[in-house]
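Quick question, first post here. What does this chain look like in 3D?
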Amino acid sequence: MSVAGGGDADFTAIHYADRIAAHPFYFKEYLIMRTGHIVVAVGILSAVFAAASQAQVSAPLEGITHHSFTGPVTGKEVRYSICLPKDYNSSGERYPVVYFLHGLGGDEKSDVNAVSADLEKAVAASAVRPMIAVFADGCKDSWWADSKDGNIPVQTNIIKELIPHIDSTYRTIADRRQRIIMGFSMGGFGALEYAAKFPELFSVCVCYDAALFGWEHQVNNKEKTAERLFGNDVEYYKQFDPWSIIKKDPNAIKDKVAVRIVVAEFKDVNRRFRDRLKELDIDVNYVETTCKHNPGCLFEQAGVQSWSFIEKNLGRAPRPGAQQRQVVVSPEVRPDRTITFRLNAPQAKNVGVNVSFGRSPQQMSRDSNGVWAVTLGPVEPQIYEYDFTVDGLTILDPGNQWLKVWSRTARNLVEVGAEPAAFFQQQLVPHGTVHIHKYESKSLGITRGLYVYTPPGYESGNGKYPVLYLLHGSGDNESAWVEVGRANIIVDNLLAGDKAKQMLIVMPYGHTPGQRPRTGNIEQFEKDLLGDVIPFVESNYRVNKDQENRAIAGLSMGGGQSLSIGLRHPELFAYVAGFSSGAREAAKFVESIDKPELLNEKLKLLWVGCGNKDFLLEENKKFINLLESKGVKHTSSITEGAHEWPVWRRYLNEVVPLLFK
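> Answer (accepted):
Ran it through. Tokens below.
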């Protein structure tokens, strides 16, 4: 028995020959773990490796894509692969999520095809409902922990960055009862680690031949993980060791997480772990197979049964005596484009939903369990805002983590999909990356936030790109164009259709200290944009720095900022656009123009748009008329719509193809 409660085992060349036959990347793992045996192993395995490589290199299954983003907590790149259900684009529904953790030596692309095919087979057999599969990156040999020196923050990447990113980017059911953790080998260790440590996040844990070896293995293995990851500190290691976590608090996982352990070669250590769980009165579904340490074989022998176990335990009620809490799914979008809103409020007297289509509030009905519900629609494909009114108090939907956040308030969002998918919907196309930064604004003397979108292929290339500076509205922040506006998804789709030039999109924070309401302090923001934001971008990203490769656009307050700054600085911006803009400051500048031909010479595009029901319609009409009277070339667009995001998403989709031509 090891110090931390686990055990250890040896690995052989024959053992790795079996693994390589199904997954060639394990050859690298073998070389890492048994470098003293390389000469012998190469002689034994070279033929197997060559054949396995040919077998493994195949076209990825439909729906699998690979992505990365900058983690907002660690500031490090977080990579993942994802497989979406076949009907994801057409259904508009939300889905459970299974997170898969790879084995030693792997990465976010390991076992993607095998797991996705296994899930697809189970769905076809009606063993499990369709779900999203996410494949995390464990940095080869992290044991899914955070290193003590902070350089390898894998657990933080997954728990605090990847899961929130997936829930905010894709149509998930963001509830622990619809979230599964699964892993193979080192990933099985990690899956049990996360299930035991974070039962508030997962309802089901499935492990395949989990490498449940303890501290002695970390001390003695070739990677020297005890020293490199854990600083030779066994107490620090115990924070990540499933044996230690469960021993310290068996009630954390008991009755909360359904556990299934499928075993191949690591029978001894898994049997002991099973027995430990039983001693602690923790239920476990335990299965032994005839497989070697090979995920393909494990999926073949036990995969469908594992998915059936998941289906049985998704949203399961605790056993008698455990704390009861009803699972309420809200909102629920159906294929006919109706939406059911639900709220568990058994003591409430009156509940309604305030939604951005139709009259508000819409009265809801209470069932015998105290759950209030109403079904509305069908409605047009769009992203809608809503919240609840409970006995006169406005509250958010606790079952929905997708929010539109202002400086002083927030509302929930719900997406109703189109068929084929609308321009603002996530599609099966290459995706760019959204980077989140903090920078020191010397002009304002404070630290500020900044979002940067880079197009697909940026990280692997070496070319330079034009930049669109995209500004948010009053009360919003730098995340608005991504979280609500879907700017990254809109541009991904345009690029995939060859309708736009590849570009970076920079989304800064538009408010400044002590600014005036609504219009903001344009002068202060201009100093920050020109003196801090643009230099930050041009020193940290591969961008073209000339006027013809810069554009500025924004909505509402950000539209006013874009028009004012862009028109006053045609030497910096060749493309200027305002959506539903507060245009008074820009109008003052236009009124002072004596030689419009100089401005017309510089600007390649001046675009002004506003909805016909927008409270800023008259202000924008006056501005358009002023441009015409002054002889300033421009494009104007008065369309259907109010002062709302559906209008601004549409405008962005129209304007981006006009840039950098």
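Residues 332-413 form a domain with the Immunoglobulin-like fold (CATH 2.60.40.10).
The chain has three domains: 61-313, 332-413, 433-658.
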